[in-house]
Amino acid sequence: MENKPLIIFVLGGPGAGKGTQCEKIVEKFGFKHLSAGELLREERRSGSPKGDLIETYIKDGNIVPVEITLGLLDTAMQKSEIKQFLIDGFPRNEDNYTGWNKIMANKVNFKFVLFFECSEKTCVERILERGKSSGRSDDNRESLVKRFQTYTNSTTPIIDHYRKDNLVRTIDAEASPDQVFEKVKELFQKECLS
Ligand code: UDP
Ligand code: MG
Questions:
Q1: Which residues bind CMP (predicted)?
Q2: Residue 61 C-alpha from the chain's centroid
């Protein structure tokens, strides 16, 4: 029987460095990086009938209904030849969490949540800097306030669920990308994922 795909969730506030660190992990440890936010943005760009709905959620810093996000994640996982995944920016709320548990949890080998801990001040500075060139409709002060509210109110309780089961690996993400990656590397080597 085929082995179940290996899953690591990557969480942290907007601008904590999830995407940046995931790229480095891919390079060093050969994972497939699936950013839930990026999959949603691609779906919107593709001219999908769900595009307008997705845009409304993203611009307001709200979480898209899980059926949409899970469908995109599932398709991307099936398409990938690499079967160890960094799922970046998911699950972000109770709806995501219960949807995943219902549909996917028993089909995968879940390892842990990689949690990038970063102050709101640093995150805001990073995102406003990124916003100068990212072209993202949510990289502006107004959307950012809402994204942080959503993160605090909806995502941190999900991280707490995993923490209760000792499934959260926390990385201090205040430093530069290379400095943060040094700690990520140590963790991945320790957890025997190399
Ligand atoms: N998003 C969502 N569900 C997800 C992941 C992302 O609805 O599972 C939406 C949400 O509106 C979020 C936006 O996509 O604010 C951007 O997410 P992304 O992870 O790309 O932003 P980051 O946190 O990396 O800055
Ligand atoms: Mg990101």
A1: 96
A2: 14
pLDDT in tens, 81-106: 999 999 999 999 999 999 999 999 99
* Closest ligand 1 atom, residue 18 Cα: 24
pLDDT in tens, 12-45: 999 999 999 999 999 999 999 999 999 999 999 9
Instruction: Report which of 109, 110, 111, 112 is spatially closest to residue 4, judged by C-alpha positions.
Output: 109
The sign one gets for the Cα dihedral 180, 155, 87, 165 is positive
**Residues 78, 80, 81: CA angle, nearest 5 degrees:** 115
61 in contact with ligand 1, CB cutoff 6 A: yes
The length of the chain in residues reads 194
Instruction: Give nearest CA residue, ligand 1 atom 25.
Output: 14
Q: Is 30 exposed, middle or buried (0-12, 13-18, 19+ CB in 10 A)?
A: exposed
Count of C-beta atoms within a 10 Å radius of residue 142: 11
Fold of 6-189: Rossmann fold (3.40.50)
Average per-residue pLDDT for the chain: 96
For residue 17 and ligand 1, the question of a CB distance below 6 A is answered with no
Identify the residue whose tokens are 């942080």: 148
- Please state, in angstroms and rounded to a whole number, the distance separating the CA atoms of residues 17 and 127: 10
Neighbouring-strand partners of residue 112: 8
